[in-house]
Design brief:
The radius of gyration is 20 Å and the shape is elongated. Helix 3 packs across helix 5, helix 6 runs parallel beside helix 7 and helix 6 runs parallel beside helix 10. It is an alpha/beta fold and about 280 residues long. The chain folds into two domains: about 100 residues, 60s Ribosomal Protein L30, Chain: A (2-Layer Sandwich), CATH 3.30.1330.30; about 160 residues, 3-Layer(aba) Sandwich (Alpha/beta knot). It starts with a strand and ends in a 10-residue tail after the last helix. It has a seven-stranded parallel β-sheet with strand order 8-7-6-11-9-12-10, with helices on both faces.
Length: about 280
Amino acid sequence: MPIEKITSRKSSVVKNAAALLQKAENRSEAGLFMAEGARLCADAARSQTEIAACFFTENAAKKYKDYLDPVLKQTEHAYCIEEHIAPMLSDTKNPQGIFCVCRMPKRRADGLPVSAESDTRPCRHVLVMENIQDPSNMGNVLRTAEALGVRHLALVGTCCDVYAPKVLRGSMGAVFRLGIRRFETAEDCLKVLHAENITSLAAVPDSDATPITTIPFETGNWAVWIGNEGNGLTNEAIEHCHDRVTIPMRGRAESFNASTAAAIVLWEMERNGAGGTSYG
C-alpha cells in the first residue's frame, strides 16, 4: 500500500475529510463519516466497514502499530500527516493521531449491515428511540444495546446522527454492527413494526402504566419506545403503541435520564435469555 505524505493544512484531501466532522448533511451527501482513534479505527476494519482513507502521524504509527496494521490492510488510500494537521481531523482535545474516512455501511431491510448477512436470527426485540438529540445519550444506548444482545434499533423523528463523532466514540463501535433503521414519523415506524408482528410498548413515567418488570419478554416479539430527553414520547407514539409501560421508581425522582431508562429497558428485554444469552 503506497503511503502519501501530507505536510500542508491546505490539502484538499484533508479539508474534505475534516468537513465530515462538521455537519450530518456533509456526511449524508458523501455517504462517508470519520472515525477517530486507534481502537475505533481498528474496530471499523475488523467489523468489515469499508475504509476509504486512513490518516496517521508518524508518532501514532509507532505507538499504535497493532491497531493501525489492520486498517492499512483494508484502506483504499493511506496518508501520513504532519502533527500540526491532526487537530483538523479531530473532535477531541488530545487526538491520538489516527483517523479513518469510512463508507456508511449498506444495510439490509432489517437495518443490519450487509456484512452481517450470515446472521439469520429473527428480529425479536427492538429498541425505538424517538427524538433523542444528545449524542452522548445515543452513543451510550447503542453501546448498551450491543452489550446486552439487542441487535435492532429504530430511530424516529429528529434523532441525532449515529455517525456523529461523539456518538461513534460513545458507542464503542456498536454502530458498525447493529441493525439501525430510521423513520420520519412514529406512524411510519409503527406500521413497519406491526407488520412484523412486533408489539410496541411506550415507556412513560406514569405510575398507572404497566410495570416493565411484568412484561413477558421471553416470549413474543417486542419493541419498547424511549422518548426525548426533555419531553418524553410524543402523543402520537403513546396513543398508537399497544400499551404503556413504566420503570418502577422510589424516591422523589420523576423520571430517568433517557440513556439510563434505555439501559434498564434493554436489561429487562434480555435478562431471561430471550436473545440467546443468559445473565443469571
